[in-house]
Amino acid sequence: MSSKHERVREAFADPSPYLRNNPYVALRAEAVRRLVPDRPGMSLIDLGCGDGRISIPLVAETGELLLVDSSAGMLELARRNVPPGSAARVSFKCVDLADFEPRQSYDVVLCIGVLAHVPSPLATLRQIAQLAGPDGRAVVQFTDDSSCLGRLTHHAGALRGRLGNASGYALNHMTLQSIETELGGAGLRLVDTYRYVFVPGLRRLPAGMTRTVVRAANNPLLSPRGGEVIATFQRA
């Protein structure tokens, strides 16, 4: 039987199923832009970068960005998304996070849409903490299992698995408190969070309807009750 990281690699080798009619990539990108300070010349690393749409806009005119992903297909899409003026300041690394050995620390560490899929969330959180430099920030996204909507998301995923529409591995469960405890022990304190509502099964709908439902579900009243969290941590 293949290991979890091999099944994850197989699941994302072809980017199309994940990216097709996925409104949450744009939602996460917008939230991250609000959470990450605009600082000239800052260095960023995006762990599990996908097609780069979340982190590439943060490079601006002077920043440097390392995009890391185990999917060569995702990194090829990311290359195409880099504006010509930023190409010299964006680099790429195709590797499993468990095998990634960084050579420096960064001002901003992004880990969006990744923690649910890694073999060991704790190991990845420790890696994130090591990558965040002095006065560095870490921005992580996860499903908060202490939230009713977060637990509902996990139940929906388990149901899809029983019906045969699954990636072949179980998603990791975690809470905001457990992540805050782990990163806090590594010298990173929680400074901000953004919550949003995830609606299972949306991508079967037409693209226009999908975007409409996501906007409706993430209005100012419902969004703070969402089970999906993007949390920002600052080096203490």
User: What name does CATH use for the topology?
Assistant: Rossmann fold
Arrangement of strands in the largest sheet: 3-2-1-4-5-7-6
**CATH superfamily (homologous) name:** Vaccinia Virus protein VP39
Main sheet: strands, sense, barrel: 7 strands, mixed
SSE sequence, one letter per element? HHHEEHEEHEHHEHE
At the first level of CATH, the class is Alpha Beta
Structural class: alpha/beta
Q: How far from one another are the termini?
A: 42 Å
Low-pLDDT runs of 5+ residues are none
**Total count of helical runs of at least 4 residues:** 8
* Net shape: globular
Computed Rg: 17 Å
Kindly give the count of domains.
1
Round the mean pLDDT to the nearest integer and report it: 89
Number of strands: 7
**Beta-strand level of the residues, as a percent range?**
15-25%
Q: Roughly what percent helix?
A: 25-40%
- CATH architecture designation: 3-Layer(aba) Sandwich
Name the descriptors.
single chain; 236 residues; alpha/beta; Rossmann fold; 7-stranded mixed sheet; 7 strands; globular
Write the layout of secondary structure elements.
Blueprint: H1 4-13, H2 16-19, H3 24-35, E1 43-47, E2 64-69, H4 72-81, E3 90-94, E4 106-111, H5 121-131, E5 132-143, H6 148-162, H7 176-185, E6 188-196, H8 207-217, E7 228-235
Give the structure's gist in a few sentences.
35% of the residues lie in helices and 22% in strands. The protein has 236 residues and is α/β, with parallel strands linked by helices. The chain has a single domain, classed as Rossmann fold.
